[in-house]
Design goal:
The protein has about 600 residues and is of the alpha+beta class. It is about 45% helix and about 20% strand.
């Protein structure tokens, strides 16, 4: 099927047979699909055949108003351009891999006594970065191991600078206490830091050999205490290395396995570097209805490596599922990113097949978990729709107000779709122009901020939950009394039960005239509790941040002679108010723009001294 507004026959007469990329637009001039082809004419003609078996293709073609093409020099160039356009336009009929997280690194700082710590985001700090790691859990595990083996500090700089005696980590032999003069020389400390860097670079055996040499020299010099420390380091490191090593000869490889069912997909990526399992991760690409498995996995590989979503350095070998299409073109495109040859292979036997089976098992388990969660969520939605006599629930929203005795009020709005929370549409509102403690006024303010300019009925919730009793409910119903759009939400107030215990909530509707107590075991009630709790969590998190910022600012504002720039410099140098309070006046005086006398006054003010 095709729309009368698009004359595909005339269009196809002028289409070239060269390789390239095409963009399909709907009647709102929105890109709904981006594709690539070795032969543009043949590929585009396939969309408009009389018999098209794919339901997805039929739905896509029915919305096409115009098609634009870009000719490329090769199919590999077309693949790279396709990826860039998908990333830019996020078309609804393309498989989309979203992962906005910045991957974690381990940072070894550039200080006199370097610190090792997890780091996310821009690399602004001086020092060496190791990674990225697949997850924060992998970083914390590495830091935990290093704390047992290498007595290098992991504490914050503010804590380190404020020490007058060694902390508990030194007593546990997990830090050599560089913060206190006389406990460890700079030379010995930096030797341990260099061993950390070698360990993080994958040179575990070099580190062990170095420690063995140190132990032997200490024994020859009859320094048995140091020899025993080296012995313990060697023993711990050997155990760690044995646990991490995989039984094989492959130095570096990524292994991808894929599982899909009922519109959901899971891709498990296993990372092996220096014959060690560095980590693994599950990914869930957004899959349009009736997408082919081969299209899903090929699109995943393209976006995963060309957009550096995994964060890892690309290995020379990548094991992929058998149904992956366009292997030569994908490999060539990835090679351009890596800067050297990349081999995409399917595993039939041997070590690669063993790793592939492991990855496949994890992909299957992840998909089964998602399907189970989906069925549970589906049953909750079904019962709630039956209870409220709604044919279908596509969107629900819930509001909550958080404050401390009327101060720093924050309103939150969370959004749920058929599959659960839609966190990208969560919103917080700073409540202004409302008397402190006036929850009704705060609710009216939040509703106006949220809905006053809404014109798209798809953004109007089917159900609007208000975390509060009859008063809050009446405010919400009054707001929607003169609602101009055809669609208006069903409004439900959620009043906490006796002792605020879950399961004792009262639901109010119709201005409070309808009062409902649902059974504790009701799946619909569990869904309502989930939405209410998520709204409360989101509101209180924002409120605490606002309160903390306001308290920090207000304390420093009260210090004579401290303006905005000096406040910023002080907080930046000491990492916040707590670090500033822990500092001595001599340390405060080292901050640019702070004299010795002003430093004494700041210190006295913070400690309530005359």
């Amino acid at each position: 099927m095709n729309t009368p507004s698009f004359d595909h026959q005339s269009f196809l007469k002028s289409v070239t047979s060269k390789p390239g990329v095409y963009r399909m637009y709907d009647d709102s001039n929105t890109v709904i699909y981006v594709g690539k082809a070795k032969n543009l004419k043949n590929r585009l003609s396939s969309y408009f055949r009389k018999e098209v078996n794919s339901t997805k293709t039929k739905a896509l073609v029915a919305q096409i108003v115009t098609i634009e093409i870009t000719v490329t020099g090769s199919e590999t160039e077309a693949l790279i351009l396709e990826n860039n356009l998908i990333k830019e336009f996020q078309p609804k009929y393309n498989i989309l891999l979203r992962d906005d997280k910045s991957y974690p690194y381990i940072l070894v700082t550039d200080h006199r006594h370097p610190r090792i710590a997890m780091h996310r985001g821009a690399k602004r700090h001086k020092g060496e970065y190791f990674g990225p790691f697949p997850s924060a859990g992998a970083v914390w595990e590495s830091l935990r191991i290093m704390q047992k083996v290498f007595p290098v500090r992991q504490c914050e700089d503010t804590f380190y600078k404020a020490r007058s005696r060694p902390c508990l980590q030194h007593q546990l032999k997990r830090c050599s206490a560089p913060c206190i003069e006389g406990y460890v020389s700079d030379e010995d400390y930096n030797e341990q830091v260099n061993l950390v860097k070698q360990f993080l670079s994958g040179k575990s055996q070099d580190v062990i050999n170095h420690l063995i040499g140190n132990m032997e020299r200490a024994s020859e010099q009859l320094n048995f205490e140091n020899a025993a420390l080296y012995r313990d380091q060697i023993s711990t490191l050997q155990k760690v290395t044995e646990q991490q090593n995989v039984s094989g000869n492959i130095e570096e490889i990524d292994v991808l396995a894929f599982s899909s069912n009922k519109g959901l997909a899971s891709v498990h990526v296993l990372y092996i570097r220096d014959q060690k399992v560095l980590g693994s991760k599950n990914y869930s690409p957004k899959v349009p209805t009736n997408s082919e498995p081969s299209e899903i996995i090929s699109s995943f590989i393209m976006q995963f490596y060309l957009n550096a979503i995994g964060g890892q350095n690309i290995p020379k070998t990548i094991v992929v599922p058998e149904l992956t299409e366009n292997l030569p073109e994908l490999a060539q495109a990835i090679e351009l990113v890596r800067g050297s040859k990349v081999e995409l292979v399917t595993a039939q036997r041997g070590e690669k097949h063993k790793y592939y089976q492991l990855a496949q098992k994890n992909a299957d388990i992840d998909l089964a978990t998602k399907l189970a969660d989906g069925r549970a969520m589906s049953s909750k939605y079904k019962e709630l729709s039956e209870f409220l006599k709604l044919p279908k629930i596509e969107r629900m929203e819930c509001f909550d107000i958080s404050h401390t005795f009327g101060e720093y009020p924050i309103a939150s709005c969370v959004v749920f779709g058929p599959e659960g929370p839609v966190k990208s549409e969560y919103r917080r509102y700073n409540v202004k122009g409302v008397k402190g403690g006036d929850d009704y006024g705060a609710m009216a303010f939040a509703l106006d901020k949220r809905y006053a300019k809404v014109t798209d009925v798809n953004k109007v919730p089917d159900i609007l939950f208000i975390d509060g009793g009859k008063g809050q409910l009446n405010k919400a119903e009054a707001f929607f009394a003169d609602w101009p759009l055809e669609k208006a939400p069903v409004i439900v107030g959620i009043a906490k039960g006796e002792g605020r215990k879950p399961g004792l909530e009262t639901l109010f509707m119709n201005g409070g005239e309808i009062e409902v107590h649902m059974p504790k075991s009701s799946p619909a009630l569990h869904l309502i509790q989930f939405i209410r709790d998520e709204s409360h969590r989101f509101a209180i998190t924002g409120h605490r941040a606002k309160r903390g910022k306001a308290k920090t600012t207000s304390v420093l504002q009260d210090i004579p002679g401290i303006g905005a720039k000096r406040r910023q410099m002080l907080l930046k140098n000491f990492g916040g108010l707590q670090g500033l309070k822990a500092a001595k006046s001599e340390q405060i005086a080292k901050v640019s723009g702070i004299s010795k006398q002003l430093a004494i006054e700041i210190h006295a003010f913070l400690h309530d001294k005359d």
